[in-house]
Automatic annotation (TrEMBL):
Its main location: membrane. The gene is Galr2. Residues 358-397 are annotated as: Disordered. Signal peptide: none annotated. The chain crosses the membrane at residues 37-58, 70-95, 107-126, 147-168, 188-212, 233-252, 272-294. One of its GO terms (cellular component) is plasma membrane. Residues 50-291 form the G-protein coupled receptors family 1 profile domain. It is a multi-pass membrane protein. Residues 383-397 have a biased composition (Basic residues). This is Galanin receptor type 2.
């Protein structure tokens, strides 16, 4: 499956047959090297961000369903490809030799095989779960713990399947290549991978989705029209995911079969092989885009996650200025509180001044009758009012 490191990626064999033998002379012949870096870079960035959002979306309790759990597992497999296989593959294609040592020479093809098997197994599990839920609704639904067990079984099988790649992958003289005991064994492995991880899963998934669509179209229950529309929307999204998987991986398998069954390695064939590899990796970044376009729940969740990250980044950038910015915000808050308290004090003082003026006018009006009568009237007032009159005299002055 991953013969691209031995046949497609064997740049020394390619350049020795169709280009000058000197690496210094051969390097300029690959005019698509740097455009390839750009295209692989786009896949790496978009795929990494998109699949991280897919995985984080499952953390929302509203998104926790069995189907979304399988989709999150598919995101894990795709994230492995975009973070590990994509950058190393494009580096190998540009440098035209393997600079990562023997361990990664065995590990990188192995990880690509693991991610491919887990992706295929997850797509089959999603199709089987939707078939059981829609075509046979009376059967017990797959619960989350059952889905976790299925995912664990998929990953265990995924780690067992590509073991031959570890055994027959070798690092010699700056080249990472497969060395099988016989050419027949290598061809058998290539055919088995194509049949077991592409042809049979594609037929099984297509049959399941055909039965699901037939059931939804023939169902005439008007009371559950909203549920039927929601199911059709989910099925439409999953069918698009399967179609993209079919289109993206078919050229890769075709080129592997061509290369292992005696096809001649030319510049055109080499570029087609590199394009087929890029297309297979592009499948890892297409799925999050499909979820965002065709599923409203994922679209809303992606927007919520991006808003939260943007707000968090803004807060972090705001705190980078140190205590000065924090002190300025605190100063603004304290200024508002102080302004409010002063406003309240001004209102109280205005009320007191009005009361003092009224009392002063009454005292001045009574002063014409003489101090003796004013004292007598003050004695007739209650103690509290007399104290107010006495206290307000300094304010009047």
């Amino acid at each position: 499956m991953t013969e691209y490191f031995s046949q497609n990626g064997n740049f020394s064999n390619v350049t020795s047959t169709i280009l000058p033998t000197s690496q210094h002379q051969a390097a300029p012949q690959d005019k698509l090297a740097w455009p390839r870096v750009v295209f692989y870079g786009v896949i790496g960035i978009v795929g990494s961000i998109g699949n991280v959002l897919v995985i984080l979306a499952y953390r929302n309790p509203r998104m926790r369903s069995v189907t979304n759990l399988f989709i999150a597992n598919l995101g894990v497999a795709d994230l492995t490809v975009t973070l590990i296989n994509v950058p190393i593959t494009v580096t190998y294609s540009v440098l035209q030799y393997w600079p990562f040592g023997e361990f990664l020479c065995k590990a990188i093809p192995f990880l690509l095989g693991v991610s491919l098997f887990s992706s295929v197994g997850t797509l089959i599990a999603i199709a089987a779960d939707r078939y059981r839920a829609i075509v046979h609704p009376l059967l017990p639904r797959i619960r989350t713990r059952h889905a976790i067990m299925i995912i664990a079984a998929i990953w265990i099988a995924a780690f067992i399947y590509p073991i031959p790649l570890i055994i027959y992958q070798h690092f010699t003289k700056g080249r990472c290549e497969e060395k099988w005991p016989t050419e027949k064994a290598q061809r058998i492995f290539t055919v088995v991978v194509f049949v077991a991880l592409y042809l049979i899963p594609l037929i099984a998934i297509s049959v399941l989705y055909f039965l699901i669509c037939h059931n939804l179209n023939t169902s005439q229950s008007s009371t559950q029209e909203g549920a039927r529309r929601a199911k059709k929307s989910v099925i439409r999204m999953l069918v698009v995911v399967v179609v993209l998987f079919t289109v993206c991986w078919l050229p890769y398998h075709v080129m592997m079969i061509y290369d292992n069954f005696g096809g001649q390695m030319t510049v055109t064939v080499f570029q087609l092989i590199m394009f087929s590899m890029w297309l297979s990796f592009a499948n890892s970044c297409c799925n999050p885009i499909v979820y965002a376009v065709l599923n409203r729940n994922y679209r809303k969740e992606f927007a919520r996650l991006l808003r939260c990250q943007a707000l968090k980044a803004y807060r972090n950038s705001d705190s980078q200025y140190g205590k000065d910015r924090r002190f300025s915000s605190e100063t603004k808050t304290s200024y508002k509180i102080t302004k409010l308290s002063l406003k309240r004090k001004n209102i109280v003082n205005e009320d007191l001044s009005m009361e003092n003026k009224a009392m002063a006018n009454s005292v001045q009006g009574n002063s014409s009758s003489g101090n003796s009568s004013q004292g007598a009237r003050e004695e007739k007032l209650p103690k509290k009012q007399r104290s107010k009159v006495k206290k307000t005299k300094p304010i009047m002055i």
